[in-house]
């Protein structure tokens, strides 16, 4: 995963990709972990947080330490239905509502606009699209999916990726996408987020895998791993799903 993320970073910074292995060999474990750590805003904000909306909430000393000392510089956001972390950005219906339109051009256009506005803030990486298939109505994040049909979810995700990335990740109006959450994240047994799932292999292959295959073939450079567990094995430790 660190190699994939560094590859993405090289693409956006116009550096030669064949330098990745050389860079990795020069990095220690702490540096590699630092590049993979997505710190939340509260780590660098002033304490207590200013109540005045016009006052800068960032503690510049903490920010300098995070960037210059700890090297946490590869960063992304979850712009799921537009740049929802950006003031005055265009907000769109949630993905499940967009899927209800069966309009692939809408998915592509949303990708284009979301990328333009998110990239303008200096963020070049989006933790989207969500390619989990929505088959568990109790799951509280089902609105982030493109619904219950794997074919439709794959096609909507594919077009979103094309709109978001275009043909050149170095383009300053485009974002690198990240497929999530590989795999089986959206079918927790009890419906609660990040709780265990019990999914037969044939169901994983027929329903949950195809949208991710579409996303990879569409050119998405990164994938977010399921932070729960499937069939008794944590997603990040699942050699079968991640490697085989």
From TrEMBL:
Where would one find the signal peptide in this protein?
Answer: 1-17
Could you name the domain of life of the organism this protein comes from?
Answer: Eukaryota
Query: What keywords would UniProt list here?
Result: Glycosidase, Hydrolase, Signal
**Domain Glycoside hydrolase family 3 N-terminal: residue ranges:** 73-243
List the InterPro entries: Cellulose_Degrad_GH3, GH, Glyco_hydro_3_N, Glyco_hydro_3_N_sf
Tell me its EC number(s), please: 3.2.1.21
Task: Supply the Pfam families for this chain.
Answer: Glyco_hydro_3
Q: Does the keyword Hydrolase apply?
A: yes
Q: Which GO terms describe its molecular function?
A: beta-glucosidase activity
**Which GO terms fall under biological process for this protein?**
glucan catabolic process
Q: Which reaction does it catalyse?
A: Hydrolysis of terminal, non-reducing beta-D-glucosyl residues with release of beta-D-glucose
Ranges that cross the membrane = none
**PANTHER family linked to this entry:** LYSOSOMAL BETA GLUCOSIDASE (PTHR30620:SF16), PERIPLASMIC BETA-GLUCOSIDASE-RELATED (PTHR30620)
Which family is it part of?
A: Belongs to the glycosyl hydrolase 3 family.
Q: What is this protein called?
A: beta-glucosidase
Give the organism, scientific name. Answer: Brachionus calyciflorus
